[in-house]
Amino acid sequence: MKTRLNKHLADRGMCSRRKADELISAGEVLVNGKIAVLGMQVDETDDVRLKGAVVAAEKPKPVYYAFHKPVGIITSVDPKARDSLLTFLKLPERVFSIGRLDVASSGLLILTNDGRLSERITHPRYDHEKEYIVSVLKPISDQQLEEMRTGMMILGSMTKPAVIKRMDDRTFSIILTEGRNRQIRRMCESLGHVVDHLKRIRVMNIRLEELPVGDVRPLTKAETETLLKSIK
Question: Is 21 labeled as catalytic in the residue annotation?
Answer without folding.
Answer: no
